[in-house]
Design a protein that fits this description.
The structure holds two protein chains of two kinds. Chain A is of the alpha+beta class. Chain A contains eleven helices and eight strands. Chain A has three domains: 2-113, no CATH class; 160-253, Orthogonal Bundle (Helix Hairpins); 262-420, Histidine kinase-like ATPase, C-terminal domain (Heat Shock Protein 90, 2-Layer Sandwich). In chain A, 62% of the residues lie in helices and 11% in strands. Chain B has five helices and five strands; from the N terminus they run βαβαβαβαβα. Classes of the chains: A alpha+beta, B alpha/beta. The interface between A and B is medium-sized, with 17 and 17 residues.
Chain lengths: 425, 122
Amino acid sequence: MAYMSFMELKSLRMQVELGNQMELELNQLPSDLKLTPGTIEKLKAKAAPMKPTLRLAGMELLLEKADKRHRRSFQKHFKTFRTNETEFRRYTLNQMNYLEKKVLFLTGLGVVGLLIGFAFLHSFIKVLVIKPIESLSSKMLDFLHNRYTYQFGVPRNDEIGNLHSSFNSLAQRVITHTDELKSLDQAKSDFLSIASHELRTPLTSIKGSLSLMRGGMAGDMNEVASELLGIAEMESDRLIRLINDLLDLAKIEAGKLPLTTVWVSASDLVQTTFKSLQGLSQSAGVDLVFENHAENVQVEIDQDRIQQVLTNLMSNAIKFSPKGDCVIARVILSDQEGIRFEVKDHGKGIDPEDQKLIFQKFRQVTGPNNPLVKGTGLGLAIAKAIVEEHQGEIGLTSKPGEGSTFFFTIKKWRFKSAENHAEAS
Amino acid sequence: MNILLAEDDHNISKIACLALEKMGGHQVEWVSDGKTALEKALSGDYDVILLDEMMPELNGLRVCELYQSQSPQPKPVIFLSAKSQDSDVAAFEKIGLGFIAKPFDPMTLNASIQSLMEKVAA
């Protein structure tokens, strides 16, 4: 409004300025003014665009008097006109200044109002939208760190509220699942401890009784009784191995068997395993050969567990080797894999179909005609679990008729001499 | 030696008694729960006490602790246990003389006890 008035006044003033110029022109007219009708028309035409009615009337009157050549009257009216004109100019100028200030003030007020509005809008959005999303995001991060307990209170009845409701449902489901998993895990732990006690107790009696009989507690035995006793002893030993293997596997899979790692010489590891298998290799008529391609190398491992893996792979190799043959153990340094342990036999080899199954539980390629001690069918499954617990890989290459090579890798290794340890991880 | 054997499994006790009496020439008194074991250990005169770890009423470790705190002159205690984790073994050796792992071979039971008893003599 004020702006509109201001603009109108401005155009009025322009016309006034035009009028002033006209006034100057009129002032400069010679004193013995002789205006022809043509001149009057000319003046009229000039005065025509001038808006304020007062001014127009004044001019017309002026011209009328001038035409009648009443000089005094002309001068008098001219004076009146000038006074009016000056007052009019002052008035318009004042009015303009006033309106200009008003416009400036209103503009300023508008800008301030707009800023305050923006600030309000911002805090409004922050409170209603950003804050709830931020808190949702932080609760989700909590989830990532296994803190599942939080749920939102009464959710709002809008999109954010829907998001909170969805989050609550999700949280509830995760909590339920976590609880179920926890109780299952507890059940598994309970089973492990009960199984190890309850299964071993009767075996203690069986083994004990057999042992006492073998020791002559029940007097002398004939040949058949002794043979039968031998079978009972062998099978109860196998049962004990089976139980131990099953419990081992269950413990490893449940993560209840933490590794106790130490730095061990790779070649010592192989030599120790060779020693422990001396009896088996001699009775099978198989030679053990060690090819060390990684001198002065140490690996960071749980010694007992990796020894268990090596023993398993080597005893398998011995079992499946023809008499008079040899089993080769190799230690190789590989840039990509770390330290690679290989056990090679010259047995019948393993069919590609069987190779896929061999690391699964209770999968044995041991044929019914295998003359040596039967395994539990868990050895390789345990070996795989142990190697994987060390972040290593286990596998085999084999061709039927050409023997098999089982391998596993250990990533953490270093050279034995302390000043030159190129540790890889 | 006079031996107190606390073991809840009847068959294992029988085998252990046979081995200790017939082969080791010891006198064995057998009880089948922790509470009786504690009473006998405090009232009787034994050279060594064999405690099963898992027993009704009181477990072996608890019997041992109570016995050692109540007896003026406690005798050596050996545990029988199927537990073989490092932490368990450490507890057996700290509280008692040591432990014999189950399943044990009765033929070597006497020798195992003998070697543990040598720790007392030393």
